[in-house]
Amino acid sequence: MISKGEISKIIADLVALVDEKDNSVLVADLPTLRERLNHLKSSLPKTCIHTIAIKSNPHAQMLKTLVDLGFGLEAASIEEVHLALNAGCSAERVVFDSPVKTKHEINEVARLHGMLVNVNSIEELTRFPNDPACYIGIRINPQVRTGGPDIYDVSRNESKFGVPIEHKEAIIQAALKFPVSALHMHSGSQMKNLTVQRQALECLKSLADEINSRMPGKINTLDIGGGLPTESIAEESKMSAYGAVIAEVFADSSYQIFTEFGQWVHAEAGLAISKIEYVLEKSRVYIHLGADFFMRDAYGDARSFPMQVWDEHGQEVEGVMQRFDIAGPLCFAGDYLAHGQILPHATSEGHWLSILVTGANTYGLWSRHCSRSVPKYLCWDGENLRIWSERQTINF
Ligand SMILES: Cc1ncc(COP(=O)(O)O)c(C=O)c1O
């Protein structure tokens, strides 16, 4: 994760890149991003192809950075397919997972040589031409509970995602009948229970084995999705534990494994910085990022983000600490980023508030409510700060 020394330098360098309109900025932290991608690669079997979920951070420069570092991209909509191709990703490194693909979209991607397109239902298979240039996978609902929050859990029985594994024979028949060469699953985000996830992987593999026993070589690719919550990297990380599970489950097979991590890769690799506009009643801090940037947190369960206060020269404000509520700028009562956040008593108007671990599911969920502008996006390379994109007004 980024060090306090680096944040201090970023704040001190901000002055050269912002003007009076820049009441907040978003920062991509490239050293942390690289460290996480390396940890992902070294934790999982070397032959895996890692595609990173675009929805977690769709900034064009971020996608280009990932592609330049040798990663593929997972697209959840046709628009994200276009973002991936525009970022220079070759079609063979793009996975297309939209659950509601139109006939028009299917015709478009079916012409893209080597793209993995995962269907959400058996019905969707009938919309493909007989000889597509793309590879087709069937998304399976493994019907497991890996312990993630309900709204991100896509593997319950009533899930709208994938064909339930209980319809095993129908899946096998469809795989044999159509030009299917892959099986896909994504158990849901923020999964906690790797033992349950292991069972889901085993199910996926045994289904592929069974299809291959009826038609040898039919399934050659297994896409196991993403879903790990963010964590600081340690030798005993959840990612390395998951990597060991994957290595064991697929030890005696030659399936090409694809992954689709999002949050685990991005969350720690981004920070947001807002001017503190007001401190009222000595306990309420008003900043310039609220439910527009922290959509999931304001409308659902707020994640707990590490925060620090800085003066304009990049000196950390310290001293006696106290609790503050952190209010966002939107005009509705629930627009709070945190309640009871511990910050220095000396926190005041004109200081900067740094908010860490904001790289995933924030910028990509930007809400237009109150029509506030999307902040300038900066990139920190460990030594220098540069602009990735300018502050943007919202177009309705
Ligand atoms: C199909 C699919 N793959 C991958 C992801 C990324 O999940 P995560 O950010 O939890 O790794 C998602 C997230 O919604 C998804 O729907």
Q: Explain this structure to me?
A:
- This protein has 396 residues and is α/β, with parallel strands linked by helices.
- The protein is 27% helix and 23% strand.
- It has helices at residues 4-14, 30-43, 60-68, 78-86, 103-110, 122-125, 168-177, 194-214, 238-249, 263-266, 295-299, and strands at residues 24-29, 49-53, 72-75, 94-96, 116-119, 135-141, 163-164, 180-184, 221-223, 256-259, 270-275, 278-280, 284-286, 307-310, 321-327, 336-344, 352-356, 376-380, 385-389.
- The strands form three sheets. Strands 2-3-4-5-6-8-9-10 form an eight-stranded parallel β-barrel, surrounded by four helices. It has a six-stranded mixed beta sheet with strand order 14-17-11-1-18-19.
- The longest helix is centred in the middle third of the chain and has 21 residues, at 194-214.
- The relative contact order is 0.17.
- Bound molecules: pyridoxal-5'-phosphate.
State the helicity in percent bands: 25-40%
CATH class of the largest domain: Alpha Beta
Total strand count, please? Answer: 19
What share of the residues does DSSP label as strand, in percent?
15-25%
If you compute it from the alpha carbons, what radius of gyration comes out, rounded to the nearest whole angstrom? 22 Å
Enumerate the strands of the largest sheet in spatial order, edge to edge or round the barrel: 2-3-4-5-6-8-9-10
CATH fold-level topology of the largest domain: TIM Barrel
Please describe the biggest sheet, giving its number of strands, its sense, and whether it closes into a barrel. 8 strands, parallel, barrel
Low-confidence stretches: none
Shape: elongated
Please identify which CATH superfamily of the largest domain we are dealing with.
Alanine racemase
Query: Alpha-carbon distance between the termini?
Result: 37 Å
What's the number of helices? 11
Order of helices and strands: HEHEHEHEHEHEEHEHEHEHEEEHEEEEEE
What is the mean pLDDT? 95
Summed up, the domain count is 2
- Structural class designation: alpha/beta
